[in-house]
Design brief:
It is a multi-pass membrane protein. One of its GO terms (cellular component) is membrane. The protein is an all-alpha fold and 311 residues long. The protein has one domain (20-310). Helices cover 77% and strands 0% of the residues. The protein has 13 helices and no strands. The chain has helices at 3-15, 20-42, 48-69, 81-103, 108-115, 118-130, 136-152, 163-188, 195-218, 228-252, 258-265, 267-280, 286-310. Helix 5 (108-115) packs antiparallel against helix 12 (267-280) and helix 7 packs antiparallel against helix 13.
């Protein structure tokens, strides 16, 4: 992002009484949410693990170019290795790989909602792994959110007779748990190199095992036909929704509280659901909407409880 572009956004946002930070984070959430239906479209032409590989390979190339242009490209040092491994293998490789495979069998609205239950799992992981006893308010948020997950995955909503659909839902929840572990690690990590400078190395670390897994399980990508439609989808998923959004998150996400960021990311499943309905003509049931509302409420309560414990 060039200084001139940032200045234009600052000037315009001031005219509307909105901080440029919230404008950019709003753009990030919009791109993240809309990337889910675009990913679903791309999965019609690209196997899931190859799509995940292409996503991070292309995003890494773009981030390297961005950091080189700004003179900020750095080799990681020893103190960076734990967070490179955590983010690269759990948040990027596991979360995206599991999510891509799951989306082949699960509708987009349900996929994005289950994947973004991460804040709820943060409470569970902190309890189990770090012996952090949750407060009563956190437990209340967890119960509310889990009730939403139960509603979305109930037999009336999820085709329990279809093994692949059930497995897809499990993969999405495992992806959310993987991301939760990373979030808690990031909070405890002592940073040596800035997060943005580590992102290309994390993406490279994710790309290599994803490519190996894709080659072994899906074969070489010789059957892919790169037409204009697919090229546009891949460009949006990788350089835009991954690389550009990572820059926005690194530049502006640190300017607001964790509570504020948690509430911002709640927009991702909401936007993903709306865009999925528009793109595929899908409809959502009353039970799904109830589950969505419970998950959102549970995340808000959990985030509010976390903020209360810090003050």
């Amino acid at each position: 992002m060039r200084a001139s572009t940032q200045q234009v956004f600052k000037t315009r946002s001031k005219n509307f009484g909105i901080s440029s930070t919230y404008v950019w984070l709003g753009v990030m959430v919009l791109l993240w949410g809309s990337s889910w239906p675009v990913t679903k479209l791309a999965l019609h032409d690209v196997p899931p693990l190859w799509l995940a590989t292409i996503r991070f390979a292309s995003a890494a190339v773009c981030l390297v170019a961005y950091l080189v242009a700004r003179g900020q490209l750095k080799l990681p040092v020893r103190g960076d290795m734990p967070i490179i491994a955590s983010v690269g293998l759990l948040q990027m490789m596991a979360f995206t790989g599991l999510g891509m495979v799951a989306m082949v069998h699960v509708d987009t609205s349900r996929a994005v909602l289950l994947a973004y239950t991460t804040p709820l799992w943060c409470v569970v992981v902190a309890w189990v792994m770090f012996r952090e006893m949750p407060s009563r308010l956190q437990i209340a948020g967890l119960v509310i959110g889990m009730s939403g997950i139960a509603a979305v995955c109930s037999p009336g909503e999820l085709e329990w007779t279809n093994r692949e659909t059930v497995l897809g839902a499990i993969f999405l929840l495992l992806a959310a748990v993987s991301w939760a572990i990373v979030i808690l690690h990031v909070k405890r990590h002592r940073w040596v190199t800035p997060p943005l400078a580590l992102a290309p190395w994390q993406m490279l670390l994710a790309t290599i095992p994803l490519a190996i897994a894709a080659y072994v399980s899906e074969g070489p990508p010789t059957s892919l036909v790169l037409d204009r439609k697919l090229a546009e989808e891949l460009f949006f998923i990788g350089p835009i929704a991954t690389s550009a959004c990572f820059v926005i998150s690194a530049e502006y996400g640190r300017r607001i509280s964790t509570f504020g960021m948690s509430n911002f990311t709640l927009g991702v499943p909401l936007i993903g659901t709306v865009f999925s309905c528009l793109a595929f003509g899908a409809t959502v049931s009353t039970m799904f909407l109830a589950g969505l509302g419970l998950v959102v409420l549970g995340v808000v309560v959990s985030a509010l409880a976390s903020r209360s414990r810090r003050t």
